[in-house]
Amino acid sequence: MTQTQKTQIRIMRMQGMGYHMIAKELCLKENQVQLFCKMHGLAGDGNLVRLNYPIWCEQNSRCLVCGSKVKQPKTGRKKKFCSGRCRTRYFRENYEAEVE
Ligand SMILES: [Zn+2]
Question: What's the CA-to-centroid distance between 58 and ligand 1, angstroms?
Answer without folding.
Answer: 13
